[in-house]
Design goal:
The complex is a heterodimer of chains A (177) and B (353).
Chain A (H helix, E strand, L loop, with lengths): L2 H31 L1 H23 L1 H8 L3 H14 L4 H13 L3 H14 L13 H21 L4 H18 L4
Chain B lengths: L1 H26 L9 H11 L13 H16 L6 E2 L3 H18 L3 H9 L5 H20 L8 E2 L3 H19 L18 H18 L3 H11 L3 H19 L17 H17 L4 H9 L3 H19 L4 E2 L2 E2 L1 H21 L6
Antiparallel strand pairs in B: 1-2, 3-4
Helix pairs in contact in B: 1-8, 1-10, 2-13, 3-7, 3-8, 3-12, 4-11, 4-13, 4-14, 5-6, 5-10, 6-9, 6-11, 9-10, 11-14, 12-13
Classes of the chains: A mainly alpha (177), B mainly alpha (353).
Amino acid sequence: MDRFDKFNIAIIALISLITIGMLANQEIIKRRLGVDEAEAAEMALYYAEKMALNAKIYEEVISLKEQELYDEAMTKLQEVMKTYPGKPQSHVYMAQLSLKSGKLADTIHNYRLAVEKDPDYMDKKTPLFIGHEVKELVKESLPKFGREKKLKPKDKTVRNALKDLYYLQRVLAGGCE
Amino acid sequence: MKALRMIDATIITGALLGLGGVFLVYFGNPANSGICISCFLENFAGSMQLHDNIRMSYIRPELIGFVLGSFFIALQSRRFKVTGGSSPIIRFLLGFFILVGCAVFIGCPIKMIYRLAAGDLTAIAATAGLIFGVWLGAKYIRAGFSLDRVKELPRINGYIIPFFAVLALIFLLLNPSFIIIGEKGPAAMRAPIYISLLLGLAIGVFAQKSGLCITGGIRNFCLVRERTLLNGVITVFVTALILSLIMGQFNLGVNAQPSSHLSHGWTFLAFVLVGLASTLIDGCPFRQLIKAGQGDVDAGITILGMTVGAALVISWALRSTSAGPTFEGKITVLAGLIFSLILVMVYRKRKPA
């Protein structure tokens, strides 16, 4: 090791110390200011605003659904979908209303659309999480559509419903998607 | 005579770069960013959806011009030589760190010259940092530093980066759905495609002929007092300065300068990193593009590293804004310096005792 190496090592050690010091200092400041809590609060506020907006947009749909007026709720929902196209929450309500009307394939497909558009619906850490009801649906529907496929192997509706169910199953299984 | 021809080519390249910098701003590019390799790579990364800042998403035709200009003239003059295999992963990482250094300053060494020529005094710290970094790199080279030996490679390797440049041009012209062209912020500030492309091609041609390199000019002067490339660097400054004054783009001062901040210490350190790393891999970001066009696969790898850096400086905020450098940007600059110094130690061939 010559003088050059010694000089280099000294410089590397100095810069490393400064870096570690800066990182430690940042951690202390973060703890003091409660940055993590602030980030969590910001996230909570984001979802609160999103849910409040949804509650406002779908107010009538929710009200009709609670009164068990499913056909009227569906008509209203279709109006809302024209005014606010592309909102994933519409598919969630569409799925729930289709389920009440016994349209299982439509229910499954709309859950798929909702989840595809907003993965937060399958994220336990967000208040939008609807994983439980999707899981329940998948559990009940898979054997049913499995049986139907055996009876009607070329039925497109059954095949598509199964594709959607498998998709939801994969999403429920998690991963890094 | 040969030296005279070289000087001519370097000075023409310098003049074209100076002229390009000011004229491209006149035609629509962002202020002081007529040509900026790091900003343009950030734009390119955004257009490829490698980051999601739509304000920084555009395929700059100048980049395509540099690579293709160099490629065509190298082919035509039989200087297209396909080499590579010299410490590729290290070059990739150094490319990444160079880009972070540029993002912390907000500009590459060429933009540093433009900023100085436009009267931006905050660029003085970057100039000092770059000179110090290159001087340090030259010292290390003199003390025995060199990366692994370059090998000749099959010709197809050399065509990859020029092919990507052609592909990028097709994407720019056809604008397929997966390419993002921002319509706000810096991305929306752009000179007409044909002007940018033609100027890029012209600069690419002359830069390949002359070998002009901002850090190379300083390095050659530090190592052997050789001034050819340095004259080109000075020409960039002088041309840009004269044109800035004529075209009313000159605004002397520290405050109210476009894409600048007042954290001069971090600007200095960031450009020490850029100068040192560029010297270790033999060329500034601009030179890497030109070398990639003439068949240097190692330069191609460096460009890939810079492109990843361009994406991450936005996604991870490893950069500066007008408010100054982010904490993450500062840490990455320090990490880059540590990495470069460790590299120097490992790759130094010591004289036997």
